[in-house]
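[User] At your convenience, examine this fold.
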Amino acid sequence: MNQPLLSVNNLTHLYAPGKGFSDVSFDLWPGEVLGIVGESGSGKTTLLKSISARLTPQQGKFTTRTVRCMQ
C-alpha cells in the first residue's frame, strides 16, 4: 500500500492574531518519526488537537489511513 499514514493539507486554525497555525501541510509515512516543535503559542497543541479531531480546523483537511496494531 503506497499511501501515507497521515496526510495534512493546508490546515489552518487561528484563535488570535499570530496565535495558532496557518497553512500547514505534510505527509507522515510508515517508519517516519515526526517532531512538532516551536515557541510557546506557536500552535503546536492546537495543531495536534485538530489532527486528533478534538478541535475543528478553520481551513484545510487531513486524512488518515487505518493501521492495525499487533497485540
Residues 6-64 form one domain. The CA atoms of residues 17 and 41 lie 11 Å apart.
